Known about the structure:
Blueprint lengths: L21 E3 L6 E5 L16 H8 L5 E2 L6 E5 L4 E6 L10 E5 L15 E4 L4 E5 L4 E6 L12 E7 L5 E10 L2 E13 L9 E14 L6 E12 L5 E4 L5 E6 L4 E5 L2 E2 L4 H4 L9 E5 L3 E7 L9 E5 L3 E6 L6 E4 L10 E5 L3 E7 L17 E3 L3 H11 L35 E6 L5 E6 L5 E5 L8 E6 L2 E7 L7 E7 L2 H6 L4 E6 L5 E6 L3 E6 L2 E9 L4 E13 L6 E6 L3 E6 L2 E6 L3
Amino acid sequence: MALPNCSLKVNRELLDPSFESYRLSLDSIPTYNVELDAAVAEVKLKDSQYTLDHVRAFGMYNYLHIDPWYEDSVYFVDSKGRVLNLTVTLDTALGKPHEMFRFESDSGSCEGEQLCVSLSLTSATWAALSDGNGKLTLLRTSKRGESSHIKWEPMFSERLGEPFIIVHSLAHVCSHVHTIEVLLLRVQKDPSDTEGSGFSISLEWISVDNSAGQDEERKYGVRKRRMMKGKSVPHYAAVEPQGKGVVVASEKPFAFTDVDGLPLEEPPAEVMEVENSDPIYFWQQTEEDVTVNVRLPEGTTKDDIRFKLTVDCLRVGVGDHAPQLDGQLFAPVDPEASTWTIKDDKSLEVCLQKRSEGPLWSEVVLGDRRGEYLMSDEQKSQLQQRLSYLTSEDLNSNPEKDKPPCNDQELEDCDMFPEDSSTLMRFDGATLKPTHVVSLGSHQFLFSVHIDPSEMPAFSLRHDVDALLWQPRPNQEVVWEHISTFNALGYVQASKRDKKFATCAPNFSYAALCECLRRVFIYRQPSPVDTVLFNRKQGRQVGQVAKQQVANLDTNDPVLGFRATNERLFVLTANNLYVLKVNN
Length: 584
């Protein structure tokens, strides 16, 4: 089955090509400290949990949880098995965290090694909790903002096999049936993986509802279990509203393997198979234009052609069939100077006039790899000459040249990119088959964050030097919408070698990075300046300045949790919870 290729369409109005840099601000950040009665329930990795996937899933786990429904309210679990809440109303009068729920540890019946306790706030009145030993508990919390001191009531508790952490959960009501969707993540030993790490990754999508019983006596039970498997811990995984699908971003693709313990009729290899047929179009380019030849069915006339071209988008189709080319162009073109003609009744030749001469395109439509690039003999010769210094038999045949041989040891972390196989995929909840796939390529995944509690979590990707924030909207024509940009954050975060967490404010006013120990970096959006400033090099007046601030926490404990609201940053260590007042 061929995967439908899509692309992430950047909103250019949200980009700032004139952005220069962040200016270090020495303004102090008010920091408040809450000492904890008991240490956070941190679980350190065992010797048997040695892979990079274990580190990503459990070693880098964020022990602090923000409440998207009630601002400035955070939750964590301590070593006494208590789910604790701190809600801030006045920074100078911070109280002690309140106990919301307590569970008893039951490690004796665990099928695998103990994992960290994980919490997911499902809705404004429900939460999901894992004890790290394989037990899932669903809790009715009442309206947490109005009843912050009312203990949570367990409504469902069941052991679901090997230990897991909760990645995402949500609740919805349909035909008077209350359903809670939960995504569970496991890293499991895989004897069949003899060439890799010996482990595989599973995402289990569980639906729990109260359809059993009558009226007030309805009890919650597991209605459906769907299993996905892959070879890398996902950067992002979330269930769509109403449980209509799942979105997964990972370095290696996932596929559904079984439902309620029964294997799917189609093997995973067929589900994930990418079409390997002949190219549907061929293309060439010069410094001035790009020529695309699209195959046409026999008997196609000019009246059958469906052609639409704008400055940065192209759509080519025949009749009522799905478009053969559809998406954002690699670079802007001049629509008025571009043409199309039918050649020999077999192909459609499209000539795209580049708006900027010189730069060569790496693809016609972003993310579409169904075409074949034909390089002229002259271009092949020029390319060979440009790269000849990289293939010299001598380490440095001519040191006087301005292009020394390539040395990969000189590359820094910020020059590295994830594997080209990184993908963003949307699976349909009914068919369990992929409906959309985006090749992330060099778009490094940075972080995910809740912007609107009624929608799926947003995620940030690196685009060039910037960090772009994307909001999944599966029910709309644009499935992933570009909603905000943090200038140069993609480059800045790559230089932080000790970075552990990253996040941003729900109103996009700032982004923040946190190192493993002590230091917090805040990057604010550009804001107007009170005084007149001039750029010395360009001699122009500067109207806005983007500020960078650094906070140093008074602790030697490693950071275990990091969350942001519009006004505050919350930093959790083993024995303290720090509140940083970022905005007034």
